[in-house]
Amino acid sequence: MEKFLAWWRRGQRDDMLLKSLVLALLPLLCCVVYCALQGRWIGDVYLPASQWNDELFYYKQVESILNGGYPLGYFGFNESHALKLSFAAWSPVLVFPWVLWGLVFGWNLMSPILCNIFLMSLSCFLYVWLVRPSWKQMGVLGLLFCLYTNFPRYMLSGMAEVICFAMLISFYSLAIHYRRRGKGRELAVLFLMSGLMTLMRPYLVLFMLLPSFFWICRGKGRLGKWIGALGSVLAIGATLGIYGCVNHYLSAEYFAPLFFTDWFQAFFEQGFWGGLKFTLDKFLAAGEEFIAFAKQGIRVGTTTGTVFAGYLVCLCVLSVQSFEEWAASRRPGVKRAESLAAIEAHLALSFLIMLPALFLMYKLIEGSRHLLTFLAAAVFVIPLARMRLPAKAACVGAAFAFLYIYRAVSPYDYQVPFVEEERQASMEEWQDVFSGYLAVDRENAPSYDNVIIWTYHDLVDGESVHTAWQLLYALPKGYGISCCMRDYLVESIGSLKSHYLLGPVGGEIEALCEEAGYEMLYSDGAMILYEIRQ
Fold it and tell me: I need a labelling partner for 350 at 20 to 30 A (CA). Which of 66, 247, 312, 343 fits?
């Protein structure tokens, strides 16, 4: 009998290992298929061909960290810079997995893509190892994963969203494991992971509520629960305090506030009732705009709208699922400690709370990208439903197939950047130019001596022309980039602090640079490089 039990346990371990490896291969397989459908291969992905300019800042900052510990020139906007060091507007904590990858494997244009795929594969492996899903649940998960095409699109990019995807999937995997075992060290790791996610993106503080709930439930007696509640408040407060310091000292000022606080200020300026009216009016107006975007996503496939529509579908399914799980856990003979109702309800609640945060604090179009992380988590939590799983899978799967495959019509959002001969030749040309003219000053760093202005756009013959900012991937390692708007440059052309400027040929900025006596270093006929000061 003992030999049979040992054999059976061994068989279970082998089964879990097989499932883990199968799911771990899924991200790579989806990326291969996504590229193949566009007639290319993963190795053809080329970041300088992308239209997503956030990727440039992420990539060059990581390169600078690996090269000198921090950027040797300022990253900023309209020549802003952080109070300390030289990072851009977003928390440098966000890219630490890429930094670790670069330390081990080196950093080049394929590094963020390979690291993204690895992180998703690792989170998939840990999910199976910690959650122990059945083959049926694995099948549903695999289906939803494949239909949610934002997974391969963002893996095949230099965007940091995949880091958040992987962190949150691993967080819920460990939470489910803790719910079944209740080990104190696992609870500590949950606090650490959720705290780290908060330092990446502040709204992810929502996920600190789950380990806080576990800690309170873990307490024995009234005193134990009060200790859990107080400890949780201190942990959340300390994390937000650290984020506040990181944001204040290590982040450059953006063109506009990253978070809108006018609704909060209204309570001080207009009194309680005036502030409440202002907040409700803003909430309702943003809610109407949200629904309008969702309808557009369904009708014509606007990317923001498809995200909003998919978000609402997952919110409804998670709400029903968590209620059903809670009702089932109240039945006699059911081990409540093993119920996933708390985890499913927490994700549904996080979906719900994020809506007013989005309405009041973000621009809807820009804020829609933040919802992708919540949808990624839903893909891994919904397949755990014990009641009516086929119906839920069919509902979410049909929505994903319609929104993210059939309605995936925008090349800007869904077309992977592949290598192009013309762009590659331009990159090689400008790499020689930059290496020949731009010397990195390591003794006086960080400083404006190591900064080039990226002229966001200029007027050429009355038409707006954007700078080919992708050429800035060719900058020397450690160089900083200041993205400047045309109006700022026109007003400040005689008092710019940066060392160099890159902009379109034939525009107003070029004429002003000539009048100011700036030295023209190079032009390829489309873009022109000036040295602002010796």
Answer: 247
